[in-house]
Amino acid sequence: MTTPVDPTPYAVDVRGVHKSFGSLEVLRGVDLKVRKGEVTVILGPSGSGKSTLLRTLNHLEKVDRGTVRIDGELVGYRRRGNKLHEMRERDILRQRSRIGFVFQSFNLFPHLTVLENVIEAPISAQRRDRAEVETLARELLDRVGVGDKIHDYPKQLSGGQQQRVAIARALALRPAVILFDEPTSALDPELVGEVLEVIRDLARDGATLVIVTHEIGFAREVAHTVVFMDGGVVVEQGPPAQVLDRPTQERTRAFLSKVL
Ligand SMILES: Nc1ncnc2c1ncn2[C@@H]1O[C@H](COP(=O)(O)OP(=O)(O)OP(=O)(O)O)[C@@H](O)[C@H]1O
């Protein structure tokens, strides 16, 4: 009798990742594990490599060295013997469609309605049934509070509403993890709260989230793990009460003293 292999408890498993742009080494050996159902918030000064790290998670940036796994599956590469070969574009797109990505700016397709924006990828990249996807999309748009806007175009919505549509679009993929890259930094201050509320709601529901943000109060509230990055490495990580209130590393203390 064969023993079934336990599925990995990690939605994200990054090991020894290096990434350079020309002579600039932006990631210098990053290790990061994110448990399923947990929220990880990544903090760090500008230029520390936070966005680049997020982009390696779905192969928008190829790593120079190291490995990234999402839900146990190697991202962007297949192993043959002891060699890694880059996946074909089609497989990369399929794999990427299991990772939700909410960017700083809203990135909706301007020529598609709200509903079409949400159903496009599940139908084209995941080949799911249109009726199923459309029903789900309506539910998700209701959930994020834009159920009355489904036939509008992105430019008819506020920034906060567009960002909520972007979150619904990510959820429609039934993703293993949703990555947020400073999801509120392009919003007018009065719209920040409504987007954070939607993310808070996902966190309460047990979604797996990785969030790059400068909202320290929000990090304290929602994160299971806070990761502090500086100079292309993870300097310190742990529960918010540890990293934010009792950091062990001088670089973390210096950063927090500037932003708190
Ligand atoms: N495609 C690219 N080509 C060249 N350099 C890049 C590229 N992408 C990022 N960089 C550089 O890599 C460094 C890290 O950028 P990254 O956006 O990952 O940092 P960050 O921590 O997210 O910063 P911020 O908080 O300002 O968004 C920066 O110096 C940036 O200019």
TrEMBL record:
Keyword hit for ATP-binding: yes
The keyword Phosphoprotein belongs to this UniProt entry's keyword annotation: no
Bilayer disposition of the protein: Peripheral membrane protein
Residue span(s) of domain ABC transporter: 12-256
Molecular function per GO: ATP binding
Taxonomy, superkingdom: Bacteria
UniProt KW keywords: ATP-binding, Cell membrane, Membrane, Nucleotide-binding, Transport
PROSITE patterns: ABC_TRANSPORTER_1, ABC_TRANSPORTER_2
Location of this chain's protein in the cell: Cell membrane
Name of the protein in question: Methionine ABC transporter ATP-binding protein
Organism: Rhodococcus aetherivorans
